[in-house]
Amino acid sequence: MRVRSPLARLRPWLVPTACFAWASYFAFHAIVGETGLMALGGYRAERSALDAHEKLLATRKAVLDHRYALLDPRHVDPDLADELVRDQLGVVRKDEVVVPLKQGD
To answer: Given a cut of 80, is residue 1 above it in pLDDT?
Structure first.
């Protein structure tokens, strides 16, 4: 009777076990990894939040573009010019009544 060494008994299982471990490693990371299927829901939520923020910024940009167009040096909108002068210089006409408000009201 011939005695086989422990390594000789494991040799037929060595390659399939290594291949299974290699495939299991990649399958695990495909499901649970930071870019796997489990993270997909978080990415979708982040995407929808960024889309909402993008819409908000587009609205703000449209408002600023409109205001910029009103400040065209060739033809300034009189209402906007009046608003800016009153806001920045504190100019008031003689026939206006000023009602002071407390800060925080």
So the answer is: no
